[in-house]
């Protein structure tokens, strides 16, 4: 996985950041703190966080979902893009990583918009469906364990309204999806998921070479 736009040469990537990234001091601090963690490569790229915020704004999102919080960079970006009464249901299984996220949500003054659910995300999403929340979300971001992507996607597709957007991360997987010699479980899972989405007529589709590959699936009317 990659937490920069890996398809760009370093000098062009630096240029892109220099003329488009508007990362503020709090997000930078979170990125610097996370960089000390051995799993920091899991964090979304900064230009990707900014893009997720723009997408949430573009679809007028008020009710949103996130599967895979880690230390909170993407959730902070999206939650700040919501109106004051907006809501983000944030799913993760890690108490220590999300404790860092909660600290930053609090500092940003948006903790009240975020409903953190510490449980396997399939269970949380099934609970939302059971509670009658189908078709009530505007935006969902999927960025957790890759083998469960089909399960997260199917549930998110039921939870978002028609015209709602599902964004899925790591769909280019550092290029390994296009290398037939790579046969590890995560690469195979992402390849199969990408093929499944390609054939899925319930959504309009675009796979962008942003960060580690970002797939947009817009639920059709
Ligand atoms: N979006 C995050 C960010 O902005 O930095 C990065 C998320 S990281 C790639 C994946 C996260 O998924 C980890 O925090 C991990 O604990 C979580 N995760 C793994 N398996 C999970 C599961 N079954 N249910 C919920 N979360 C899970
Ligand atoms: Ca990711």
Secondary structure blueprint with pairings:
Elements lengths: L9 H11 L4 H10 L11 H13 L4 E5 L5 H8 L6 E6 L2 H14 L5 E5 L2 H10 L6 E6 L6 H11 E10 L15 H14 L4 E6 L5 E6 L2
Parallel strand pairs: 1-2, 1-4, 2-3, 4-5
Antiparallel strand pairs: 5-7, 6-7
Helix pairs in contact: 3-4, 4-5, 6-7
This protein binds S-adenosylmethionine and calcium ion (CA).
Calcium ion binds next to loops.
Give a structural overview.
- By secondary structure, the chain is of the alpha/beta class.
- It has 8 helices and 7 strands.
- The chain is globular and about 50 Å long.
- The longest helix is centred in the middle third of the chain and has 14 residues, at 95-108.
- The chain has a 7-stranded mixed sheet with strand order 3-2-1-4-5-7-6, with helices on both faces.
- The mean pLDDT is 97.
- 41% of the residues are buried.
- The termini are far apart.
- The structure holds S-adenosylmethionine (SAM) and calcium ion.
- S-adenosylmethionine is lined by residues 42-44, 68-71, 73-74, 91-94, 97, 120-121, 143-145, 148.
Describe the structure concisely.
The protein is α/β, with parallel strands linked by helices and 221 residues long.
> What structural class results from the helix and strand content?
alpha/beta
From the spread of the alpha carbons, the general shape counts as globular
Q: How would you write the strand order of the largest sheet?
A: 3-2-1-4-5-7-6
Q: Taking all residues together, what is the mean pLDDT?
A: 97
How much helix is in the residues? Answer: 40-55%
Unreliably modeled segments: none
């Amino acid at each position: 996985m990659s937490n920069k736009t890996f398809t760009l040469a370093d000098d062009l990537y630096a240029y892109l950041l220099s003329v488009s990234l508007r990362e503020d001091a709090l997000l930078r601090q979170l990125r610097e703190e996370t960089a000390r963690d051995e799993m920091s490569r899991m964090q979304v790229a900064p230009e990707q966080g900014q893009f997720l915020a723009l997408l949430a704004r573009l679809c007028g999102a008020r009710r949103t979902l996130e599967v895979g919080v880690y230390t909170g960079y993407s959730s902070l970006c999206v939650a700040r893009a919501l109106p004051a009464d907006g809501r983000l249901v944030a799913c993760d299984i890690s108490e220590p990583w999300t404790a860092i996220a909660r600290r930053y949500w609090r500092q940003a003054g948006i903790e009240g918009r975020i409903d953190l659910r510490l449980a396997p995300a399939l269970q949380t999403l099934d609970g939302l469906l059971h509670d009658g929340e189908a078709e009530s979300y505007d935006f969902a971001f999927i960025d957790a364990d890759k083998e469960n992507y089909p399960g997260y996607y199917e549930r998110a597709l039921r939870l978002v309204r028609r015209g709602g957007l599902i964004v899925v991360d790591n769909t280019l997987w550092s290029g390994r999806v296009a290398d037939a010699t790579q046969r590890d479980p995560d690469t195979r899972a992402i390849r199969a998921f990408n093929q499944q989405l390609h054939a899925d007529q319930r959504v309009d589709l675009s796979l962008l070479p942003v960060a580690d590959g970002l797939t947009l699936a817009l639920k059709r009317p």
